[in-house]
Design brief:
Two copies of one chain form a homodimer. By secondary structure, chain A is α/β, with parallel strands linked by helices. Chain A has helices at residues 15-26, 40-50, 66-76, 91-100, 112-123, 131-142, 155-166, 170-177, 181-195, 200-208; strands at residues 6-11, 31-37, 54-58, 81-86, 104-107. Chain A has ten helices and five strands, in the order βαβαβαβαβαααααα. Chain A binds a DNA duplex (30 and 30 nucleotides) through helix 7 and helix 9.
Chain lengths: 210, 210
DNA sequence: CCCTTCATAACACTTTTTAGGTATTTCATC
DNA sequence: GATGAAATACCTAAAAAGTGTTATGAAGGG
């Protein structure tokens, strides 16, 4: 278990948030903010040496995507836990972050007490996340034959798949995406072929699990 | 946090399992088995007074369903955590248990170390459960318009719905359930009517959420 | 400039699904 | 014993989905 203070690093480009977090952490028992970074580049250099317990990493950084930063850092600092910091609960980004190696995420609007709790949870091997995200994670990490849609489907195909998931008919999807129904059918067909399935439901099961 | 020992009560009618659990718990650091019950009636009487930290409750008890017992006890002993004990991973029962107030469940075949871990998790506010069940729970508690299938669909309709969810065709479902395809179609039609939808995917979205 | 991928679209054809109407049997309940 | 819910099953028909094939223009990499 952690013997003493939990050392936390912050990577955040917005000053108010950055300083607010540092203040919160430094003034809380058992926590200390060891360092702050305003961009990914500096963070990459500094964090490989400092190795804090936890890094609060903003997803939207000016120079580099926070997700990429985590992917790189997690390779080099295996013991450091990464918590993504984000404004809104963007499924895709959060999910990608977790795949990149983050252990959880916190919304920037999260109450101070809950931020500390989230950090503690991560240190204790937990993963603070909403049940929405948990669902995606569960589906992805535990499901035998769930597939990572992002790596085999083209952007348009993913759009079509989303509409298919809603239960819309080809005609309705065509209207929604402003293409002809034939195009929708072609996309659907290509999706099915890539996923090696023969129906909408099978495709959804493969991609979203169940 | 819990200051000392975690007190665990056991409600289980099968002697070998009951005694095995007691032995395990009493011989583990930080755990103590405060009491054992062989049926629900005795448990109801005893537990309201003893208030252990955790109750391991068998789902299949001779006199009363363990789920009902939890429903009643959770009212009176709000702080006590209930973990359902079950032989096989029966979605419906486990789900009902969680609705009744249980915090998690453990399979009887679970390895001793994992049983202790599960108990610890529950005490720490966690919910030991497979990702399968977690998904149902999440869907049920978080989803806007998900419908409680159990209260409007007949048993056979629920079976058919499950098969529809797998992406099977009517013909395949007919084979699986040993009825004619026409029967499957009738069931599907009735399901759709009850759920007020017009397609398989819509039905699945309503019931299982997404 | 060629090659590949992607988005778009069309045509023909088959299979599956959905919709509506009926009917029989069983089983529990009143 | 009537009533009603549930499971079973058949018929017809239309709508939707899935399969095979082909084609064109745009974008990007080599």
């Amino acid at each position: 278990m952690q013997n003493d203070m939990i050392t936390v690093a912050i990577v955040e480009d917005i000053r108010e948030i950055r300083e607010g977090l540092k203040l919160l952490i430094d003034n809380s028992d058992g926590f200390t903010c060891s360092e702050v970074y305003v961009n990914a580049e500096d963070a990459l250099k500094g964090l490989v040496l400092s190795r804090p317990d936890v890094v609060l990493m903003d997803i939207n950084l000016p120079d580099m995507n926070g997700i990429e930063a985590v992917r790189i850092l997690k390779e080099k600092c295996g013991d450091t836990q990464f918590i993504m910091s984000t404004v809104y609960e963007d499924d895709t980004n959060i999910f990608e972050s977790l795949k990149a190696g983050a252990s959880g995420y916190l919304l920037k609007k999260t109450a101070p007490a809950n931020i500390l709790q989230g950090i503690t949870e991560v240190v204790n091997g937990g993963s603070p996340m909403s049940t929405q995200i948990a669902r995606k994670v569960i589906a992805s990490f535990q499901k035998k034959d769930s597939i990572d849609e992002n790596e085999i489907l083209t952007p348009k195909e993913k759009e079509v798949l989303k509409s298919l998931a809603k239960g819309l008919r080809y005609k309705e999807i065509a209207g929604e995406l402003n293409v002809s129904m034939e195009t929708v059918r072609t996309h659907a067909r290509n999706i099915y072929e890539k996923l090696q399935v023969q129906s909408r439901t099978e495709a959804l099961n493969k991609v979203y699990g169940r």
